[in-house]
Amino acid sequence: MEADAALAAVTLESVHLALCDYRGELPVYTQALDHCWTVLAADGTSAALGAHDTGLLKTQFRRLRDEVEGTAKEWVPLHGDAHLGNLLLGGQSPLWVDFEDACVGPREYDIACLPSTAWSHFGDADQELTRRYADLRSVCVAIWCWADLSRSAEVREAAQYQLGRVRKLAQ
Questions:
Q1: What three-state secondary structure class fits 19?
Q2: What is the DSSP letter of 139?
């Protein structure tokens, strides 16, 4: 797993560099966060979640969003959803897929998708900001999963796991 994380870090750097040549317009990363809030605020997180946990997700989302707002020094083109599930290993070289969430934002937003063991490969990245983005992404994943709970057992498991992470943040 650590080797995969290191490989992901190296190849994500190359994705960031390649996207710098992209001539099209990319949305800002905050659009994904805004959409996440819309789902949460519209009670789209499923009746199974309950009022207490819905309130917890709202509180943590707002807190973390406020903490990261305006802290990044530089915005660059990003993959937008750079978790290991979007990195295909095999063949001649690793291949990043699923660029539908490509956007512009701070590198730390993308780095936060990777396992924390990979973060040190980005020596000039703000590690504290990366941690905050990782926490914010946990809140968002919890929201998305609770909103689509009936899709699969894996989504239900992810919803429980991410909600557990968010509960620990609040302690």
A1: helix
A2: H
